[in-house]
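ugh ok fine here u go
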Amino acid sequence: MNSTELLLAYFQKFLPFEKEEQELITTRVTSRKVKRRQVILQEGFVCRHYSFVAKGCFKMYGVDARGTAHNIQFAAENDWIADIGSFHSRKPSQLFIKAIEPSEIIQIEQQDLYFLYLNIPKLDRIFKVIVENKFVELQNRLLQSFSSNADERYLSFLEQYPHLSNRLPNTQIASYLGITPEFLSKIRGKRPGHVDYINLG
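structure:
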């Protein structure tokens, strides 16, 4: 399947779409190839797209006053990534979105998404579910930040991103968990059959 076909197959998992509806969707989205470490959203710029990951992996992160990056979210195949607040408010983002691997994405701009909402109401329902799920993920992550220890946060990471534990370097996972890569290695070392994917940036 090409990227657009993967997107349509993703939507079909929620609700059935008529051929005409699928064709309308394809006229309002754009496919894009992204190089490893390429930034698709930069702090200070408005997030203009919802990005569906057909292939590869991305991270969304913020940078503090000391210049330290803090990973907030990962997105791999069949997942979405966007600064939702910036996308809908049209205000500059405080976040970055960067490819961790060579990737292929499908992007939808705000005006095109709203057009599809009006003409395909079932798509509006699907995106409400997507946004609600992202909100729940963020809420759970916030709760874990002050109510869970590092081991518990790592187990939650494995539950949320079961296919990424061996695709991401320790530095990326450690940044997400709020611990050092060395401490993460100790946590991962306790798990049978684990082999570290060492810092590739």
